[in-house]
Batch of 4 targets.
Target 1
Amino acid sequence: MTGRLQHFRSVLLVAALAGFCIAGAAAQPAPTSAGPPDPKLVEDLVAAGRILADHGLLDGWGHVSVRHNRDANRFLMSRGLSADLVTEKDILEFDLDSRPVDTHGLPMSALFTERYIHGEIYKMRPDVVAVVHTHAPSLIPFGVTKVPLKPMYHRSAFISFGIPVFEIRDRAGMTDMLIRNPTLGHDLAEVLGSHPAALMRGHGAVVTGPSLPRVVGRTIFLALNATLQAQAMSMGAPITFMEPEEARKIEEREGHGLARTWEGWKRKVMGK
Amino acid sequence: MTGRLQHFRSVLLVAALAGFCIAGAAAQPAPTSAGPPDPKLVEDLVAAGRILADHGLLDGWGHVSVRHNRDANRFLMSRGLSADLVTEKDILEFDLDSRPVDTHGLPMSALFTERYIHGEIYKMRPDVVAVVHTHAPSLIPFGVTKVPLKPMYHRSAFISFGIPVFEIRDRAGMTDMLIRNPTLGHDLAEVLGSHPAALMRGHGAVVTGPSLPRVVGRTIFLALNATLQAQAMSMGAPITFMEPEEARKIEEREGHGLARTWEGWKRKVMGK
Amino acid sequence: MTGRLQHFRSVLLVAALAGFCIAGAAAQPAPTSAGPPDPKLVEDLVAAGRILADHGLLDGWGHVSVRHNRDANRFLMSRGLSADLVTEKDILEFDLDSRPVDTHGLPMSALFTERYIHGEIYKMRPDVVAVVHTHAPSLIPFGVTKVPLKPMYHRSAFISFGIPVFEIRDRAGMTDMLIRNPTLGHDLAEVLGSHPAALMRGHGAVVTGPSLPRVVGRTIFLALNATLQAQAMSMGAPITFMEPEEARKIEEREGHGLARTWEGWKRKVMGK
Amino acid sequence: MTGRLQHFRSVLLVAALAGFCIAGAAAQPAPTSAGPPDPKLVEDLVAAGRILADHGLLDGWGHVSVRHNRDANRFLMSRGLSADLVTEKDILEFDLDSRPVDTHGLPMSALFTERYIHGEIYKMRPDVVAVVHTHAPSLIPFGVTKVPLKPMYHRSAFISFGIPVFEIRDRAGMTDMLIRNPTLGHDLAEVLGSHPAALMRGHGAVVTGPSLPRVVGRTIFLALNATLQAQAMSMGAPITFMEPEEARKIEEREGHGLARTWEGWKRKVMGK
């Protein structure tokens, strides 16, 4: 009888644990949707990814997101897919814990592993409307050396506000270098602070902006400035960088505006 | 009564000021047109922009202009649009104060902000028929260092005539670095002087020529020479630059002529 | 009679020698086929070559192979053809001596001369499922200098396991530098040892992997790391390379997985 | 009467001079044709130009020629036209003084100015079957510095035979740097001597070969070696160049053969 009782208690325990797990899961139901986003915003999000892919700045792993137009606590990003292959139907909604509202039947493995980059930045930076995670090759050498990126080209003026380098070892020791969870996302967001972008050592960069055109432009001109700065450095002569006041004046004009170029870029990648 | 008088005088003053302003605006009516330009010239202007875009030398902001064939006091340039998207219907006429003859209903914000570059150069340089403003990446490192561009490649012979660097700080202190008004355009034209081109620190360059093919060729070979010179410098051995007399002989032959290549470039960008 | 006998014996000897030669040839009949390979594997092999050609990493001579899915003693590789022109019907089966099972009527000269690279590596490395031989330009400078490739970019983590340099002179003295026979293939495989890849001085590299997507990814990121390392070196500051433990963690995750990017790459090169 | 006589004598003088000029022209009738060339050779010549243009090695001015298959004293080359626009009907026949057999009604200005490069090399080098004149950018830095090109990449083995630099100043002082006449062509051919190629300071290079595929391959791998050598030099470590015996063995195999790659290159540029 003791044996049977024990058996019974074991069964109960297992059932209880299972119940707890189910309850645990139930404690985190899928977040609610903020409702359908502005179709123009979704179209721009698709375009943003394709423009960056067209510039060689997004590969199979980089991604771009935008805050939901109806709810600052939701953001939009594609499922895990090369940016140049994304269409409107691949766009999903996430809460700021980077949990999808509805995966449309996709397994969680079909999402970008590093989606936490986006959610954690949106949490800490109410001013940020759009985020890019890029592996732009020209940025890598600056991330692995102590050479600071400095603004050298007028459209890269925002670099004047400082581009910190995120060293994942300082936060988490030996890792596989991906931002695999909210904690690492939070660490990265802390290093980013109030800056427009941060390099990630041996990995790439994260870039933020107050709109999709701005974050796309910043990504393009961050990478271009890195190329130009390396070339100027190789010439062995002192470099005249931009003065902070020059940079401030340019940023006041939204990096000189991007509306015209944005329309041009978009026409090229979205077809006729 | 004094109060009423004062009020009345104030009203008069406001009215007078308003009248003055209206008169001021009326004092600058839209410039008159020189009449329809040669359709071939317009076609070549469209082609020039597309050729430079195809070479990666014009982005969403660079522009090319040409003097009107009927009137040396007018020039033609597109509305604000990426050069590779421009068609004949986007070409507008400007006077040498860079005021549009007719915006075809477009707001002034739809024009290139930096159109003053063109007007002010045409004013000071009667020999100039075409002007390019480019952000060619290879030129930026030369603009921010003290390293002078020197002619190293035969088709870049015109560099022998000198390529000054325009430092906007020397003229206007802290700015957003754009040529936003006639004064800055005039300053740039003064630094350009009688040279074929000038670099603009941290911004790009302006290139001039006696025809559209020449200015397009000069822009291409200015940028190419910069790339080649940087590469040669990195090899750490003395460089044999062109002698001024070699350069002079080449320029006498119009930079070796460009008619053949111009036709080839044009065929490629204008479709069959 | 002795003369006739001698003559007779000579005839016999000649016949015997001829028979021996025939038998010798007969001792090496064409290897037997392992049967038709998985069509998906053949499609992936074609795609692998086109993806690498699309990345500028295979020219008219580079090649990619994969072990046969039915028999570890057979591998599949195209006839001698530029990778971007290969279709399924160009794929041939080889044994581990790099002898074709059936040339489909092609002369031996229509095969890749350096097919021995593949067979000899498959012999010595049971863990290897796919092999690439590339002439990637960015790798050549590392092969001709004593500068070791080190992992600088997270997706190039496998470089941490060591990339030896094969100096053909050390094995065979003065040659035309091609892996023209099994002996040279064996020599190369010995230098490769258990490493994921080896550079070949003045020639290119060989890259191995446990699958076609992995070997394609490794080839792309080996070449990219070389480009980035050279750029970082030119900046003259100390470089933070990846720690072995970081690399190990990434490789445990199969180089962060390539399934998503593989599908994207494949869609692009295989048409709609 | 004296006046009339003088007038008459003047008229006679003018007539005599005109007659002399006509006679002078008549003393150099157009050379005779060797007859229609092999259509396959013409097709390959068109393909050669397009392949080099596709590799960025021929612009609007570079050119490729081949000796006529019926007569070693004639060669074939296109009229002055960007290589990527040339079709079979643009191919003209020249004698070794670089005089066209028949311009098909084109003015002499429609021919390449520098055609003398080809004729003079064919005169002095009976072994040469095909000639390329290129402005390949990667070669320019080597032409203007004292840094010798050395073979670093196996397919560039022919560099081992020496690549002299033609300094036009040493022969003709100050010029416009073009090979405008037979004398300059002869000077260049003398400096070329028995070498496979020669750099032209500040201008480009001339490359020779025993066939169109070989000269195309040599042009591609000369330019590639220059790129790779500059990159290796920038790494600051000693470089292992190819040994002369390695190079000799490779050249014995016709630079490792190009037939396969030639077919691939040709398919790409000649359409389906």
Note: The beta strands of chain D are 63-67, 74-78, 91-95, 130-134, 165-166, 197-200, 204-209.
Target 2
Amino acid sequence: MTSEILEDLALANHILVNEGVLDGFGHISVRHPTHPERFFIARSMAPALVTPEDIVEVDLNGEVHDAQGRRTYVERFIHSAIYKARPDVMSVIHSHSPAVIPFGVTGARLRPICHMSGFLGATTPVFDIRHSAGESTDLLVSSQALGEALAKVLGPSNVALMRGHGSVTVGNSIKQAVFRGVYTESNARLQAEASRLGEITFLTEAEAKATSDMNDKHLDRPWEMWKRNAQNLSR
Amino acid sequence: MTSEILEDLALANHILVNEGVLDGFGHISVRHPTHPERFFIARSMAPALVTPEDIVEVDLNGEVHDAQGRRTYVERFIHSAIYKARPDVMSVIHSHSPAVIPFGVTGARLRPICHMSGFLGATTPVFDIRHSAGESTDLLVSSQALGEALAKVLGPSNVALMRGHGSVTVGNSIKQAVFRGVYTESNARLQAEASRLGEITFLTEAEAKATSDMNDKHLDRPWEMWKRNAQNLSR
Amino acid sequence: MTSEILEDLALANHILVNEGVLDGFGHISVRHPTHPERFFIARSMAPALVTPEDIVEVDLNGEVHDAQGRRTYVERFIHSAIYKARPDVMSVIHSHSPAVIPFGVTGARLRPICHMSGFLGATTPVFDIRHSAGESTDLLVSSQALGEALAKVLGPSNVALMRGHGSVTVGNSIKQAVFRGVYTESNARLQAEASRLGEITFLTEAEAKATSDMNDKHLDRPWEMWKRNAQNLSR
Amino acid sequence: MTSEILEDLALANHILVNEGVLDGFGHISVRHPTHPERFFIARSMAPALVTPEDIVEVDLNGEVHDAQGRRTYVERFIHSAIYKARPDVMSVIHSHSPAVIPFGVTGARLRPICHMSGFLGATTPVFDIRHSAGESTDLLVSSQALGEALAKVLGPSNVALMRGHGSVTVGNSIKQAVFRGVYTESNARLQAEASRLGEITFLTEAEAKATSDMNDKHLDRPWEMWKRNAQNLSR
């Protein structure tokens, strides 16, 4: 079972690169299926190149437990703190996906513009590291304390933006997190475009909830396509 | 004859993915050539992966008739209701093509900006499911009654937008529907871009009619190119 | 010599598709090297699929002279009329390249924003078929008379826009015409983008002239790259 | 050691094309590792096609020293003058990357919008050749004197825009220069997009410095991915 999860996690890395959510940076993790106080994440490397053999195990304080002594991303604390704060979360993505960044540095709020992104719900909070660590940081969530500050801003939401940096997306499975990562970026593109045409009718809260529940039943459909696309790419 | 139509329908799925009209979701159908009270559509799956063997038969109330008992898309009622209301329609596309969505959620109206999209005609109606089913739906056209409400908004037009969801495009053949699907998306991109440069001179109604008639004579030309592109992609 | 020109013309078709200037429609022609009252153009087909064997010969009134009796594009008169009016022109492109269309339907004028597009010169005229043929045409330049009206608007310029339709670009060789086709589209993209940031400092007329002369010395450099890209694509 | 540098330089050409920084024009150079008064740059050709065998040696006055008598780019003086003025600089890129050009022709200033582009620092100067050579040039930096004028405007910055032309980016290694070239273009895209959503919170100067230092520790990560992508492309 674990080996299947590691393969899905490697594949999810490739899908997220292929769909424009990750580039040379960013990461996705998955909680350990039987030891919920641990999660899996690739060692420090470009997501496009991750294989199951590159994945290490980390605990909820961000401590790496790896027999080979390998290191992982400086920002593993994004993951450890969110898994600690949110027992419902089984997978976490941190990305710099490009359409989302403008919403993190302006007053504009990311909201669900269509039925594919109902999971954005009523609010998409913005984490500004300046409020936790001042105005001269390197913007990285490089400690458990900063991870906890981010997790607090995230609260019960599925997505939080990070000012001048990117965003974090969570799900109850790898497939749900990947779906949300792809459609968070898509919603940002559509919302930016629509905002230039006129005032936008967003989903109501009830529509957001209903569409999110509905999409959860169809996660396999895009996954199969993204999987094929990612596999074609790496041939 | 039927087997050729099923091959064309599978190919149309691939073309629409390749040209950016469909992604992991959306569907295209074609009316049965000799039993006009039936239509063909793929079973519930990502359009990029559809083969002729994946296609099922549905009646104009949205009932699936399949010897293997396979299911198709929840939103098959978009197709069944339109075929019922519009005897002239032989093919229907439902998509979430990205440039069109902003026009469905703002006051901006999609209108023909150049000779390739004269089929948009004078008006492109917008269907808002809230008017039929209230403010807390999952936005899916998941019953014959909702399909009929959509078909009523579509009226005699070739394209109708769906608020917060996507659009529907119809044609008197697979090739015409695919042409319209591709150029509806293209028109939306061009119109959004032009609207930022200044006031737009749209086609007159007479120009829209004349260009639409003219393009109907040249449907094979882009089809051959799109076919080659789609086949290259899936090699 | 003629066979080399036919190969270059077929290649130019593929390059222009590959670089986003042509899609399933549009065409490029070249004047006959030894019979200046004739030009070569593909038969009526998608540019991506053109081979040297698909090219026919046309005279300056738009009459096709083909032993096999093949037909070419309805809009061959764009080419015939321009070759007739402009003895300096050796190659003509008609395209619907997408970034240019918005400039043809708004008051915004296309002007050279950087040194690659100095050939645009001081003015880029706009041809509106309504002034020649009224408000209910199919927008096609489908007669020698309409071609002459277009050629008159083009005058001594290198590029003319066509309202609600596309544009025409001319050069003293296939390579120069292709260069200009690619960079007309590029300039339109850059100008649209820059116009949202603030008032634009365009090239002066003297800069436009000097940069255009300078680029004419380097036409082989991008051609070699575009050639390789187009050949990779069609493998 | 030199042969490794030539291979990296050829690869850097391909990476920059593949990532959209260079097209048929533009160039990257590297200072000679043991003779700091010389640098390496490709002969005059499209960057996508450069191999280690195409690289020539140039001195800091822009004089080519090549046993085979090959010539290089007219604009080699961009490189020679910057290496002369900036002993810290080991690699120089000159590009026409598209998102940057609008910032060079409007009053909008390019500033770091996220942690990947802290190297832009507090100011991104704009070089206008009109101030050095008047209003009728071909905009090329085609002499050592013009190169020195550009180097003076660049000053201690990492990036300078060139009005109506492009930009120059410098680094203390090929990898750093390539990283900066890619993320200068990325920052321009993000900043243009964000400027339409509202007022932008840019990085503080201290954040710009800290993020730039931090990214310098991770230059290998995207390089490995860009390398693989470039190699896949040229297969």
Note: Strands of chain B lie at 27-31, 38-42, 55-59, 64-65, 91-95, 126-127, 159-162, 166-171.
Target 3
Amino acid sequence: MNPMKLKATPMDTGVEFKETRLDNGLTVIAEVNPAARSVAVGYFVKTGSRDERPEESGVSHFLEHMLFKGTPTRDAIEINLEFDRMGAQSNAFTTEENTVYHGAVLPEFGPRLLELLTDMMRPALRQEDFDTEKQVILEEIALYADRPQFMAFDWARARYFRGHSLGNSVLGTAQSVGALTREQMADYHARRYSPANMVLALAGQLDWEATLEQVRVLTHPWRPVSAGREYAPFQPQPGEFRQPYPKATQSYLVHLAPGFAAQDERRYAASVLASILGAEGNSRLHWALVDSGLVESVNASHDENDGVGLFYIFAQTDPANEERVVEVLRRELERLEREGVRPEEVERAKNKIATGIVFAGETPMSRLFNLGLSYVYTGRYETLSEMARKYEALTVADVNALLEARPFSQGFLYRLVPPEADS
Amino acid sequence: MNPMKLKATPMDTGVEFKETRLDNGLTVIAEVNPAARSVAVGYFVKTGSRDERPEESGVSHFLEHMLFKGTPTRDAIEINLEFDRMGAQSNAFTTEENTVYHGAVLPEFGPRLLELLTDMMRPALRQEDFDTEKQVILEEIALYADRPQFMAFDWARARYFRGHSLGNSVLGTAQSVGALTREQMADYHARRYSPANMVLALAGQLDWEATLEQVRVLTHPWRPVSAGREYAPFQPQPGEFRQPYPKATQSYLVHLAPGFAAQDERRYAASVLASILGAEGNSRLHWALVDSGLVESVNASHDENDGVGLFYIFAQTDPANEERVVEVLRRELERLEREGVRPEEVERAKNKIATGIVFAGETPMSRLFNLGLSYVYTGRYETLSEMARKYEALTVADVNALLEARPFSQGFLYRLVPPEADS
């Protein structure tokens, strides 16, 4: 009895999807929206820490920085100025499995932004820039070591995925980055930034034919090399680990449990389940832990990776409450697996997620991420309406079906705690 | 010679502006956009720390929290659940002169969101909730005391605006909040949350006539009281103050200088000037301080208040570099006043700001802020196109005219530094 069903809002009116693969192997996709007031452009490179050899740990992220340092015809200042002249909103990020470069501008600057980003994909990697930037990366690594809230998740993943490349650190270590040479980076770039391993995505107001012609000319010299990814089998093992850390003043709890891959259609139901369990502001864990004053914050979400997925829960608490928080967390997870979810919980989570999808469709920049990542993982495009319909169709039974395998009972609990609390 | 002039992009196509004042004094305004996929609703209350008596310092911000704690017919949980059921993205904030409550939802939930926010404007202010929330606020005050980066700006304002209510702290102090009674808060609410002192703004997909009828019914019991604001004259005095602070590990420099009020048309040129001086990523201060490695970050902006404006510059630096940073900062400000700005700098800043305006027009939620705040300050509405045209028309002479009064030479420099650096 929920009166708030999603209307079939005409979310994709006038929007047209285009895709092609160039002779050099580069995939180009676009969601053309003539009513948009801007255009977003992004290169999605299917490479990240999971694709690194042990001796090159951290190279994906370091290389991401180097792409802003210069090309054969531009230095770092010229790249910075060119973004600035267009008034571009731009950035880049590196994860375990993707490196993404993106920007948004007024439609009239679209071709210039495309030219700049394309030029950056073939960086000069000058030795002097490499040496300077290495210091910046080493400082970043040192800085994060002071942030247990960040490291807790990284170290929990490393233990959960032990022996699997999805446990690799994005930042790398002071040792691995310190020892890295320019030649190793150039070799990694040559292997991983093959046009066949990249998707160029665009969203918003643009001329598809003109864009395609421009990309053909700009990337004409690019040569494809084969750039695979290893999909080692992964078998999660339940367990726990408690680590005292001098820089921790709070206790950080990370619970990881098997979920569903980016290619698995059950990922929609998994997002709803994670929302019911631990969405910030209102969820089972919110009421059990935040509202009761046991923790400052808690949240659960579902993380879809290439071939593997996981549920994760993060809680930060006063060390004095640590054991009580773990107890409540275990009780809630057990109750969830035993009793399943209720219809009104599913409806509420579906509304929340569907609204989020609409908000994420309001600007070309936010559409770009959906578009590019969905394509990298599944090789296909999903309209906003299709996504909304998939959530709309979910039932309580779909969500409860995920619980039959008792995923949370197979979870791994990682605790990063102040040394004092370890006595 | 800049080829990147703004096209007359049809930014406001299909958008219609509506406004009315109800008999109880409440102003209702809307930017109706039938093509939008969501609707944003906000109450803009023209009250903040500058409107507080000394003994009620912090009440505006504390009251903002209390509006989420309950109305005569809803408790805190019910308010939270109701936002959640709609999948609303909502929040609130308090500044020196405004308290704003806002949310965005799918169009079909618009009336429900409007009902909820309107109900919240008449809070129950239950004693038990008041006592509990007071502890939360006191913890927040203690928390901010650990964040010199935040306090530096607050304390710099207090000194710059000494004797003027714009120097009042939004958070208040542990003493003032600790001593505050429920009755004082109820009195403040009765004085300041008069419908005549509030603007209800909406943006996105909505039915204006139906909205208006709903608001009339919901706010029928509201009675206007006169709620003025004192506009004491303000005469900035140049000077500086250096304060050692045990919790500072870096040196924080805040430079404040006279600017232009929210009602002054020269504010557009002032934004361009601030961008040229200190926009993050690319500006005179960026190249002089960040690129040279002297500071971690620096930025300048122009802050428009009701009747008074100011330029502010914020830099964070290693204590060892403090004197050198101050020297470079003074040199750059002096050079700016002596030589003025260059045409290409003005063009670049205009492009950047114009692009920002377009991005801010892409979602109903971001339009809402522009719409509501512009109306609170000037009593009128400005379309995106009008704003873009005003920037487009700016010349080098307009920007240089602001420098004739040598505003930065009348600036006040506040330094918050580690105690060790004070020897």
Note: Chain B has two domains: 16-219, 239-422.
Target 4
Amino acid sequence: MAVVMTVEELERFFLAEFPQVFHSKSGLVIEAVWERGCRVRQAFRQVSVRPGGTISGPAMMALADFAMYVAVLAAIGLVPLAVTINLNINFLRRPAPRDLVAEARLLKLGKRLATGEITIWSLGETEPVAHATSTYSIPPGKLGGIIEP
Amino acid sequence: MAVVMTVEELERFFLAEFPQVFHSKSGLVIEAVWERGCRVRQAFRQVSVRPGGTISGPAMMALADFAMYVAVLAAIGLVPLAVTINLNINFLRRPAPRDLVAEARLLKLGKRLATGEITIWSLGETEPVAHATSTYSIPPGKLGGIIEP
Amino acid sequence: MAVVMTVEELERFFLAEFPQVFHSKSGLVIEAVWERGCRVRQAFRQVSVRPGGTISGPAMMALADFAMYVAVLAAIGLVPLAVTINLNINFLRRPAPRDLVAEARLLKLGKRLATGEITIWSLGETEPVAHATSTYSIPPGKLGGIIEP
Amino acid sequence: MAVVMTVEELERFFLAEFPQVFHSKSGLVIEAVWERGCRVRQAFRQVSVRPGGTISGPAMMALADFAMYVAVLAAIGLVPLAVTINLNINFLRRPAPRDLVAEARLLKLGKRLATGEITIWSLGETEPVAHATSTYSIPPGKLGGIIEP
């Protein structure tokens, strides 16, 4: 099994289909995709700061969800209607007020369900700030990707 | 056990401590608090719309996290350093492009940990769009609330 | 939507298909089923006791999983191949060395997925000892039940 | 940080404190412990078989919980009162009717909470059958291990 979409194709898809999430000022970057995984990055944003100089939980949840979706799309092609059915996140350490990096890894890629784990770090750190698992539902007949952006 | 903070006190706290989350244009409203529970509301926002006219998963996760935090504060008083350690969410139905209403209910309120469940509906619907459980860690010595906004 | 299986039909099914789980010495009882929910009971068993006189976590997980499966079967009929895809459990209080009672409630009953929540109490207590959520995958074409025990 | 308990010390502890779980016929083996991780094994047992020749979900949940507890004890010493507060498990593939192997890895080892992930395989397979995350609560003052079996 190989990657079926490149970083450039993924970025074009997100710019076209998810302009509220992925735009020139969102600070979201798809850094790399590989077989059953990816690395994405969220630039530090003042809007996500919380008391004590840390980054909000919802900002990390959104990044985990984005990383998982990128890993699914990179593996199966463009499926805008794939939807998250479950996300479980453990917050491990207070993130520093810096960029966050997330890596997603698919644990299972079935016909109807894809499950993966996502680890998030503050840029430059080795101990993770959060760890999530997530399951996506894949609509019937969409495997392989049939929507062109 | 009774509520130790009113809706007005909670709103003042959020306006002062979490201005990035809770402000005049955020569309977030604390509708009611009661013993070990609360109801909050997120006005519909264009930024949360996704393909097909639904509302994004991260918008629902953020609302679940907010509802849980309000329920914790209403029960134990102002603890800005209480932090989410776990959130698990199941997405059940595609929400309509309308306001979301969330109710949180504490299942346990211990000295160190508070666990609750949160149900989210599209305004006016009876079947939930999402259901979450979450655990907060309460810093030692903070029970009862010692920070005044 | 109504219940499609009675307690007696469910018990016959479990005795026939899951004799390792549900037998005369298992201490498991299906107490009641209703629209989208059920109540089951696990008699106290010495094998589940842990240091301090409490009941093991895995015994509560097994009971949560059983309650969810009963609620699914009561709603859709006999589907032996329905399988758990996710279970998340929060342990809230140490159970007393007594019977456990669990109630399951379906939050969603779709064609492919059923999601529910399960609350577990020590018999006679009002505060729960554990709370779980779980999702079952329903094999295509099985809705309504086509397997007769 | 290094391992503070050997496999032999762990086995003696479980034989003494958890005789219902870990005994000569339980089929449970602690294969190895290392810094912040361990590998355990559950021999195939007829009692865990389910329709279709697979292994029950609760058997996998129990193994995940055991693996996590071993990893915690190996890292912090004997803490019988450490308790699971959360376990989330995703079932990925039907296990074969064979031994199960589980590896646990601590993602965080704090003073009050330890969080880890656990992966389970059918013996000899490379694709996991289940993946779990779990959080343990560590009683105050126990870090380092003060209870001798």
Note: Chain C touches chain D at residues 17-18, 20-21, 46-52, 56-58, 61-62, 65, 80-81, 83-91, 94 (CB under 8 Å).
